[in-house]
Amino acid sequence: MESVANIILYFIVAIAMVVFSVMAVTTRKILRSATYLLFVLLSTAIFYFQLGYQFLGAVQIAVYAGGIMVLFVFSILLTRRPDEKESVLTHHKRAIGITVSVVSLVVLLFALFNMPLLHGASLTEMINAGEQITMHEIGTALVGSEKFQYLLPFEAVSVLLLACIIGGVVVARKR
């Protein structure tokens, strides 16, 4: 049974994560947005520590809250001046952005519940069958190289991030 303090900490961190997530995407200053993202990543690490995954929490802090945020801030400062004024989005661009976001959310939720996850079964099928899904099985599914495992897309995303960083450096040198 969980203690009351653990439950209270969970809700405080969850509320902080939601608030900082919203602030990260609604602020007009990009460095503030990166700072709010840092707080979201630290909140995620607190959740890992609460679940008893100390190593995963430490990796979250070291890799994401540390390394990735330094790369984000470095890329931001390379590609633009922090004092540049941002133009306000027009209603038309905002409507397009919201529409694309909602469609993306629907597609991602559909894929989450219908794509084969473990042993060729979808998440919906596993929930309906009442099967327990362990963290080990999820980790194996995400970084395994067999059928219905996602090592190749994971590596493709890492190459894409590397290309974005190189592109940021190239754009900064042309300025």
Q: How would you describe this protein?
A:
With 175 residues, this protein is mainly alpha-helical. The protein is built from seven helices and two strands; from the N terminus they run ααααββααα. A two-stranded antiparallel sheet has the order 1-2. α1 packs antiparallel against α2 and α3 packs parallel to α7. The longest helix has 26 residues. It starts with a helix and ends with a helix.
Give short descriptive properties of this protein.
175 residues; two-stranded antiparallel sheet; 7 helices
Itemize the secondary structure elements and their pairings.
Layout: H1 4-26, H2 30-51, H3 54-79, H4 91-114, E1 116-118, E2 121-122, H5 123-129, H6 135-143, H7 151-174
Antiparallel strand pairs: 1-2
Helix pairs in contact: 1-2, 2-3, 3-7
Global geometry: globular
The H/E string reads HHHHEEHHH
What portion of the residues fall into strands of 2 or more residues? Answer: under 5%
Taking strands numbered 1, 2, ... along the chain, how are they ordered across the largest sheet?
1-2
Classification by helices and strands: mainly alpha
DSSP summary, beta strand count: 2
- Distance linking N and C termini: 58 Å
Give the overall average pLDDT.
Answer: 81
Q: Report the total helices.
A: 7
Indicate the percent of residues in helices.
over 70%
- Describe the sheet with the most strands: 2 strands, antiparallel
Low-confidence stretches: none
| Computed Rg | 20 Å
